[in-house]
Known about the structure:
Blueprint: H1 2-12, E1 44-55, E2 60-71, E3 85-95, E4 100-109, E5 115-118, E6 123-126, E7 129-134, E8 137-143, E9 147-155, E10 160-161, E11 168-169, E12 177-194, E13 197-212, E14 220-230, E15 235-243, E16 253-257, E17 263-266, E18 272-275, E19 279-281, E20 288-290, E21 293-297, E22 302-307, E23 314-315, E24 323-334, E25 337-347
Antiparallel strand pairs: 1-2, 1-13, 2-3, 3-4, 5-6, 6-7, 7-8, 8-9, 9-12, 10-12, 11-12, 12-13, 14-15, 14-25, 15-16, 16-17, 18-21, 19-20, 21-22, 22-24, 23-24, 24-25
Amino acid sequence: xxxxxxxxxxxxxxxxxxxxxxxxxxxxxxxxxxxxxxxxxxxxxxxxxxxxxxxxxxxxxxxxxxxxxxxxxxxxxxxxxxxxxxxxxxxxxxxxxxxxxxxxxxxxxxxxxxxxxxxxxxxxxxxxxxxxxxxxxxxxxxxxxxxxxxxxxxxxxxxxxxxxxxxxxxxxxxxxxxxxxxxxxxxxxxxxxxxxxxxxxxxxxxxxxxxxxxxxxxxxxxxxxxxxxxxxxxxxxxxxxxxxxxxxxxxxxxxxxxxxxxxxxxxxxxxxxxxxxxxxxxxxxxxxxxxxxxxxxxxxxxxxxxxxxxxxxxxxxxxxxxxxxxxxxxxxxxxxxxxxxxxxxxxxxxxxxxxxxxxx
Length: 360
């Protein structure tokens, strides 16, 4: 019934085209806290939370909570159920110690309080999944079928603007870009309820907020993205965009954030992100995901090996594409000094080839 309802909504909505929205262009100046919230002039926007936490007994979890806004109509209407935007959300829990993965998704129209963003109250929500963004931190709440989470996130560093000159370029040409910033390290505490037991947890989280109109090029089929939080207080973000012929787009890029919060842009020429011949094949979609990677950044004298403690972390989508996103372990060295850390890896475009995907 829900799928039929939203199909009807899409058919009857006054469709907007990409030309009705702004594109991400160089020169954008971020302003906080305003840019934490909604940007209706852009067609697509998301708030992306991931993290690794542990209980006092060592029980480890990874989590994901994401909110997506997709512009549908730019028409003005006073009707409370008018479809101006569609709101999708994902929630996932990686029970690393227990060896299990749980995920859910939902799709809603705004309606009278069903889903949306309210800068006055600081809320981003979709039903009873919500992020409360306040001056000194954020709170996440999510009630899923098999687990609940309630987490408090306190930023350790200032926001990092990704890309150059206010844009994260995704391909050659105007409009193939996004406005993109991250909070790369947030001290995280709270609780996770699973199987009748509540775990008090602590660890670190990462937030991405991105808004744009149609950032990917027609010849791009997916991407591999990772965030890394190293034990020495530094962070790393990298993504490589894959063409349909298997080549990598030269606008793939990333950033490195030092222990004091100073970031530096990493271009395609500054790093290599190479999959090892170690795939996990999904029993649901039959997609084969490379779950082991080597990262080399000569500019930083850094070599890292990326592995995952839980192979099965695919979100098999009903409303969008299926993709793999999950907790990772990181080990390596910089200037011959050992490095260890945790993070998150996202891989899209491996399942359901030819179907549209929402680019990160």
